[in-house]
C-alpha cells in the first residue's frame, strides 16, 4: 500500500538520440514522501530515414536507489526496444538485461526481464491492450517459476493531443514473488 512516483525529464539531442533523467519518490502510509533514487538513461534509435520494417532502439539506464527501497542499490539496465505498428495494432518487445553492482544480485550475473506490449486503436484517441512485465532470473540460468516475477496489465493509452502522453493500467501478479495488484499511470508532456 505504497504510492511510487517517478519524475522523468528527457531531452532529445537529435532525432535518434535522447537522454532521460529519473527521480524516484515514494509516498508511504504515513503520508510522507521520500526520495528513493535516480537513474540516467541515454537512448539511441534507428532513424526513421533508414526505413527499417520495425522500430529499433536501445536504452541503457544506470543509477542508484536507497537500500530501504531496493536491496540492489546500484544497477544497470540494457533495454533493446523493437516495435511495429500495423494499422490499428501496435506491438512492442523489450528483452531487457539487468545487472546489479551492489546488493544481493551483484554476483548473479545479468537478469533477464522480458517486457511486451500489445494495443489496438479503438479510435483516434483510445487504444486498449495488454502489457506484460517479467523478471526470470539470471540469463540462461532461470529461477524456479514461483521465484520469478510475472505481471500482466490491462492498459489504455489516450492520444487526445500530440503534446501529451497518457497511459494507465491495472496489473495482477502471476507468481508468489510478484506484487499481487498494481495500478499504474503515466502522464507526459512534450515541450
Can you walk through the features of this model?
- The chain has 191 residues and is mainly β.
- It has no helices and twelve strands.
- It has strands at residues 3-14, 17-27, 33-45, 55-65, 74-86, 89-102, 111-121, 126-135, 137-138, 149-158, 164-173, 181-189.
- It starts with a strand and ends with a strand.
At a glance:
The protein has 191 residues and is an all-beta fold.
Write the layout of secondary structure elements.
Layout: E1 3-14, E2 17-27, E3 33-45, E4 55-65, E5 74-86, E6 89-102, E7 111-121, E8 126-135, E9 137-138, E10 149-158, E11 164-173, E12 181-189
Antiparallel strand pairs: 1-2, 2-3, 3-4, 4-5, 5-6, 6-7, 7-8, 7-9, 8-10, 10-11, 11-12
Unreliable segments (pLDDT under 50, ≥5 consecutive)? none
Number of helices: 0
Average pLDDT, all residues: 94
Secondary-structure-based class equals mainly beta
- The SSE order reads EEEEEEEEEEEE
Q: State the end-to-end distance.
A: 33 Å
Strand content: over 45%
Number of beta-strand segments: 12
| Outline type | globular
Largest sheet: 12 strands, antiparallel
- The whole-angstrom Rg is 17 Å
Helix content: under 10%
Keywords summarizing the entry:
single chain, 0% helix, twelve-stranded antiparallel sheet, globular, 191 residues, mainly beta
